[in-house]
Write a structure and sequence with these properties.
Blueprint lengths: L14 E2 L7 E3 L5 E6 L2 E4 L3 E4 L2 E3 L2 E4 L4 E6 L7 E7 L8 H5 L2 H7 L20 E2 L12 E5 L12 E5 L7 E5 L7 E6 L1
Parallel strand pairs: 1-5, 2-7, 3-8, 7-14
Antiparallel strand pairs: 3-6, 4-5, 8-12, 9-11, 9-13, 10-11, 13-14
Length: about 190
């Protein structure tokens, strides 16, 4: 299966399943790990189900602790982001998923040429985007990972660790801007 860098399912023609996961994880001294997991299913002449998801989908962390965003599978071809969004901007339907305006606006700065379409000639150039204070604390904060290196000057970036700088009592909603049915929450204590 040839996978492209698609923002928000543009051009996607697959059945989507929301598998954000309800498992809770709590932070330790070493931080919390959120994994991007592949889960594809196909029934001939019926559907293709793209069930990539965050595991866990909801985490609880202390303000100032770290999150490591990485892959669950050793050879995943899919790039992913963990992008902080307003709860109201989380897509709830296939139509919203295929035209996720928050994804397009918030994730485009990851690209070498933010105003051009993503793809093999427009690689990830910025792995971390900070809209607020350094770390995860504001809408628009985002980190990206890509298992296999794109063609060009940018190498693969298989995991990233970032501090949660949001104040205690904050809930940060996040999604993957490439696969916006991947959604989760960071509960900050």
């Amino acid at each position: 299966m040839k996978i492209k860098w698609l923002l928000c399912g543009v051009g996607a023609s697959v059945a989507l399943t929301a598998l954000a996961g309800g498992a809770l994880a709590s932070s330790s001294a070493g931080g919390v790990v959120i994994k991007a997991k592949d889960a594809f299913k196909m029934v001939p002449n019926k559907y293709v189900q793209d069930g990539v998801h965050f595991a866990p989908g909801t985490i609880t962390v202390k303000s100032g602790s770290t999150i490591t965003f990485t892959y669950a599978d050793a050879k995943s071809p899919e790039p992913h982001t963990l992008t902080i969004v307003n709860a109201a901007d989380l897509p709830r339907t296939v139509a919203q998923t295929n035209n996720c305006k928050a994804c397009q606006m918030l994730a485009a700065p990851h690209l070498q040429h933010p105003k051009a379409p993503p793809g093999p000639t427009n690689n990830i150039a910025r792995w971390t985007l900070n809209k607020g204070a350094p770390g995860l604390d504001a809408v628009g904060d985002s980190v990206a990972i890509q298992e296999t290196g794109p063609k060009g000057p940018t190498p693969a970036h298989k995991s990233i660790t970032i501090k949660v700088s949001a104040k205690p009592g904050t809930t940060l909603n996040f999604l993957c801007a490439v696969h916006p049915w991947m959604q989760g929450k960071i509960i900050v204590k």
